[in-house]
């Protein structure tokens, strides 16, 4: 993401990074800052009071991740799912 800002000769003031969509949109709703999200995620949240600007150049790439809690129980189905990666 930062590389894309550099390509556009912009320097963002990154105050924090957040992986939780609900918390992130809550921070934006409270006036804490702004964010860049895939448009598809915005349908998951009420956008009352938020301004959405669609980016013209869509060169950003999202990399999905699989996460789970360390040292905790994983079901057999979850273990089999993880074998796919």
General description of the model:
The chain is an all-alpha fold. It has helices at 2-7, 21-29, 76-82. The radius of gyration is 17 Å and the shape is extended.
Structure classification: mainly alpha
Helical residue percent band: 25-40%
How far is the N terminus from the C terminus?
24 Å
Overall geometric form:
extended
Per DSSP, the total helix count is: 3
N-to-C order of helices and strands:
HHH
Number of DSSP-assigned strands: 0
List the topology elements.
Layout: H1 2-7, H2 21-29, H3 76-82
Task: Summarize the entry for a quick read.
The protein has helices at about 1-5, 20-30, 75-80.
List the defining traits of the structure above:
extended; 85 residues
